[in-house]
Amino acid sequence: MLSEEETEEIKKKITSHIETNFPPEQILSARSQIESMNSEQLEKFLEKNNIMMSDEKKDECVFCAIASGKIGSVKIGENEKAIAVLDINPISKGHSMVIPFEHNDVAPKEAMSLAEKISKEIKKKFSPKNVEFSKSKLFGHEVINILPVYKDEDFNSEKSHASMEELEKIKEELEKEEKEEEENSREQNFKGKFTKETDKVSFEEEKFLWLPKRIP
Ligand SMILES: [Zn+2]
To answer: 20-45: b or e for each residue (b if 16 or more CB lie within 10 Å)?
Structure first.
C-alpha cells in the first residue's frame, strides 16, 4: 500500500510525464484523471500499466545506491543497520553521513548510535569545537548528517567538493587513530595479564620483543 507521501510523489512524476509527452488536447483530462485517484486506485493503475514506480524510485534513490555500493563512496563505519560515509560535498573536515540500509522515512535508532560513534572519533582525531547532527531525507530515505564545527560552520554553510583521494586521506587519518587505540588497548590487556610478581620475567621478555615493533 502506498503512503500518502508516495502517492503524491508518484502523481507528480506521472503528471510531469503527461505534460511533456502527451498531445496538448489530452493533457488536461489525463491530468485530472491522475489527480482524482486515491492511493488504492493509483496502485491499480500502476499495476495495469505495468509501471514499476516503487522499484524505479529505489533505483533512483541516491542513498540506497550508496548503501548498496552501486555508487562509490568512502566508508568510515558500519553497523547492522547503517553505514557511515564521508560527504562528497563537505562543509568541513570530517563532514559525513549515516545512511540506513533500509529505504525508510524514519532512520532506525542504530543509525543514531553509529552517528554518535563517528562523532566521537572525529572529536578525538580532528578536535572540532563541536559536532552537530541533522536529519534529512530525499525521496523518503532519511539519513543523519554529521557536521564537525571548527569555527562557525553550520548546515547552511558553503559546501566544497572533495575528490575521492582527498576523502581517502581523511579516512586514513580517522582509521590511523583506531589502530593506535587498538594497540594501546592490547598493551593494556597485556599489562593486565602480567601484573603478578611471578610473571615479571615473561612480562619483561615480551615487552622487549614488543617495543621495537612500535618504532616506525
Ligand atoms: Zn533509498
So the answer is: eeeeeeeeeebbeebeebebeebbeb
